[in-house]
Amino acid sequence: MTPQTTPTRCSRRGMPGTSRSLVCNRIVTTSDGVPLSVRHCGSHAAGHTVVLLHGFCLNKDSWNIQMTQLIRHWGNNIRIISYDHRGHGDSGSAPMHTYHIDRLADDLAEVLVALGVTGPVTLGGHSMGGMTALAYLGRPASKRPVEPESLVLVATAAGKLGSRGLGRLLGTPATSILYQLVYRIPRAGTDEVVRLLPRPVCAALTRHGGYGDAAPKSLVAVSAAAINATPSTTIVGFLRGLKDYDRYQTLSSITAKTTIISGGADRLTPTWHARDLADGIPRATLIHRPTAGHMLMHEVPQVVTGAISCALAAGRPVLAPANQVSEGRVS
Questions:
Q1: Residue whose C-alpha is closest to residue 331's, from 281, 287, 271
Q2: What is the mean pLDDT of each run of 10 residues along the chain (331 residues)?
Q3: Cα separations (Å) of 30 from 100, 155, 193, 203, 230?
Q4: d(CA 244, CA 291)
Q5: What is the DSSP letter of 298?
Q6: Model pTM?
């Protein structure tokens, strides 16, 4: 089965500050039958496509600030695509055994094909979205429909999640116990029994390891709502997938110009992960914000947007980047 798409629905009022570009929504149905909710804006004929991949228990709205800022600066010169991972946001649920990073990389490849993306492309991934980008780059070249020109990795890791920071919780027996519990109990019973276990963990990661006092309460509320709306099957299913995730062997083969952004107060993906990425990916640049946490797109939005704009400007030298992000670079 090949990925299928529904007719596109477009609006000029879909996002603030996007008067020069239509914001369109469509459904891409994956090869295993899961409907993915996709948002895209800009022209199909634009010179560069930016694909934004959200994190665990979040949704495509977590990139709204960057989408708005990029559209304001680049207009129809770029195309931006974001979508909800399977089991997240407005996308459909899927069997729990498919909730792992390699399947998300398959979904990414199918979205690129369904939307006719040919390149040049910048992949931007936050947390689990960055892991998805790395898994995509670890696929055989014949299974990568587009070769990204640039890569922006935000608060993410190549693996070893169970050995550092709050990720150590993944290494406890509770991960497997929860998986079996959720897998065996009917949906209604699952949500009732398990809601008090994994969901507060996700909320605690965002609250204590994500924002601190840096982000507006409205943005904290948006992320909290996304976490609360994520089904228990999705949360527990991906916990096991995250525990087993390891893409260290992929790093040395990455040819895309890579920028890594980390926060010193991030307890979910501590700075060690970013340094491993910077050491492993050839010619990668690391931008470190000592007081920022996990939700860097909201805490230091100009840094994240600026990194993406610099990637765009590198491919379009006649246009200046929207922001400079040299401050805070770590060599």
A1: 287
A2: 64 49 88 97 86 96 95 91 97 95 98 93 97 98 96 96 66 63 60 54 49 59 80 86 93 98 91 97 97 91 97 66 36 29
A3: 15, 27, 31, 29, 20
A4: 29
A5: H
A6: 0.85
